[in-house]
From TrEMBL:
<keyword id="KW-0238">DNA-binding</keyword>
<keyword id="KW-0804">Transcription</keyword>
<dbReference type="InterPro" id="IPR002577">
    <property type="entry name" value="HTH_HxlR"/>
</dbReference>
<dbReference type="Pfam" id="PF01638">
    <property type="entry name" value="HxlR"/>
</dbReference>
<dbReference type="InterPro" id="IPR036388">
    <property type="entry name" value="WH-like_DNA-bd_sf"/>
</dbReference>
<feature type="domain" description="HTH hxlR-type">
    <location>
        <begin position="11"/>
        <end position="108"/>
    </location>
</feature>
<protein>
    <submittedName>
        <fullName>Transcriptional regulator</fullName>
    </submittedName>
</protein>
<keyword id="KW-0805">Transcription regulation</keyword>
<dbReference type="InterPro" id="IPR036390">
    <property type="entry name" value="WH_DNA-bd_sf"/>
</dbReference>
Length: 147
């Protein structure tokens, strides 16, 4: 990526990596996209300790990726819902899933199928040109630093 340094604190890759680059955080986001909302449900589906879960959920709320919404059970509790900022992470997780299925899966092929709700078509992740819509690889892109 040109002259961008790994330690550059303003790098648009290093900043999100510092926030999201921990396993439990990414798995929390995966579960949120799958519809998990309540603390107990995150804990039981992920088998994560209460302290780690509390810390990771707190960070995602603090960063504006999740928001807490009160609901009434026997007492007031909270659900965790994706914000617009959180929903914008969907392509990132889908790209990681696609890469993981290709390069790290113990069995060849995808781990599950995704389909567009409206037409039933399969879901894919690709980087495309904003001008001509051609699918791009790293070899097709030229980096021009702006700062």
């Amino acid at each position: 990526m040109g002259q961008v340094r790994v330690v550059d604190e303003q790098c648009p890759v290093s900043l999100p990596a510092a926030l999201l680059g921990e396993r439990w955080t990414l798995l929390l986001l995966r579960q949120a996209f799958l519809g998990t909302r309540r603390f107990e449900d995150f804990q039981s589906t992920m088998e994560i300790s209460r302290s780690v879960l509390t810390e990771r959920l707190g960070t995602l709320v603090e960063e504006g990726i999740l928001r807490r919404e009160a609901y009434k059970d026997v007492r007031t509790r909270y659900e965790y819902r994706l914000t617009e900022k959180g929903l914008d992470l969907y392509p990132v997780l889908m790209a990681l899933r696609k890469w993981g299925d290709r390069w790290m899966s113990p069995e060849p092929g995808p781990s599950f199928d995704l389909h567009h709700r409206d037409c039933g078509g399969g879901v894919d992740v690709a980087v495309t040109c904003a001008g001509c819509a051609e699918v791009l690889t790293a070899r097709d892109v030229r980096v021009t630093p702006l700062r």
